[in-house]
Amino acid sequence: PVAIAVTAVLLTGARERLHNFAETVGGTELATLAKFLIIIGIVLPLVPDEPVTNLTSITPYQVWLAVVVVSTLSYASYLVQRFVAPRHGLLYSAALGGLYSSTATTVVLSRRARASGGAPMLHAALVLSTGVMFLRILIVVAIFNLALAKVLAPSLLSLLTAGLVIATLLYWRGGGGASAGAEEVLPPSNPLEIQTALVFALLFIALSVGVGWARTEFGEGSLFALAALAGVTDVDPLVLSVAQEAQGASPFAVSAAAILIAAASNNVLKGVYTLSFAGRAAGIVPAIALLSLALGGIAAAVITLSLA
After folding, report:
1. Is the distance from CB of 104 to CB of 189 less than 8 angstroms?
2. Model-level pTM?
3. What SS3 state is found at 58?
4. Is 26 left (phi over 0), alpha (psi -120 to 50) or beta?
5. Dihedral of CA 33/96/200/248: which sign?
6. 300 or 99, which is more confident?
7. Is 56 helix (H, G, I), strand (E, B) or coil?
8. Which of 47, 80, 42, 72 is nearest to 61 (CA)?
């Protein structure tokens, strides 16, 4: 009773601040925060931590934990992008968009490139968002499998560096100053729709079962074909399923190569998106840059396997 009374007094005293916070943030943002708390604090503790099939050792708890990790990373990027990025311009938003979803960011920027006639600043932002994707992959893998992250780190950091260098060259190609669309920011979308989380979980389960089945039936090499196919949908479920199942020195190299191939496949997809949404005239330069990063990812996968 004493604790309840103290809590009531504190809440009463902070009522005005809470009202001001609610008005500043808005009802939509409060609903998003509630969804985030549901995903982490209510659903996660309730799911079982035992495998439900022999095709994969991943448990329902691990599936939802993967949802939590990806949602947390996306939500953090969303909050910064929503409340901070509008004061910092397009490149800042593009980098945050790469942490949230480089594919969605590519589509938005490609449409703006068509409208602006292909401003160099937009080209730089397109490549920057994909470069940051490599950092996102490394963070996600490190959370679930630090040993695999150490194998992947040289390749992913090299690709990140390459993306940053290309983005910088494209930026200075436009004179390094403001250009059409330079002051616009990406309109962040809600990353925590429950339907999106469920779709991600189902895709993660399907890929986890697919990885286990392919390895059993066709050997480790079949993982590369599956990774290439997964890359044209969403790279995160494949990355997470491989990271949670990778074991031993040789499988680490194979798993790392599969993740690099999935990222390369995803970059090919984004190159196609860029040409489709921006048009040939406005999209050819960033599309070539994205395809170059895809080729770099494939080369990194080959080198990783050769060094195993």
Report:
1. yes
2. 0.78
3. coil
4. left
5. negative
6. 300
7. strand
8. 47
Q: Answer for the pair 211, 223: CB distance below 8 angstroms, yes or no.
A: yes
Closest CA to 267 of 244, 293, 242, 228: 293
Which amino acid is it at 138? Answer: L
Contacts by residues 133-137 (CB-CB < 8 Å, ≥ 24 positions apart): 133/98, 133/102, 133/235, 133/263, 133/266, 134/159, 134/160, 134/163, 134/263, 135/98, 135/99, 135/160, 136/73, 136/98, 136/99, 136/102, 137/235, 137/239, 137/259, 137/263
User: Pick from 117, 121, 74: which is nearest to 98 by CA?
Assistant: 74
- CA atoms of 129 and 280, how far apart (whole Å): 20
Taking all residues of the chain, what is their mean pLDDT, rounded to a whole number?
78
Reported residue count of the chain is 308
How is residue 61 written in tokens? 């708890």
Q: Which runs of consecutive H residues, i.e. helices, occur in the chain?
A: 2-13, 15-25, 27-37, 44-46, 60-83, 90-116, 120-144, 146-173, 194-218, 222-230, 235-245, 249-307
Tokens of 115: 């409208």
Q: Which two tokens stand for residue 32?
A: 């998003």
CA distance 163 to 290: 9
Q: Rounded mean pLDDT of 103-122? A: 82
- pLDDT for the residue numbered 49: 73
Which residues neighbour 191 within 8 Å (Cβ) at sequence distance 6 or greater?
71, 74, 75, 77, 78, 100, 101
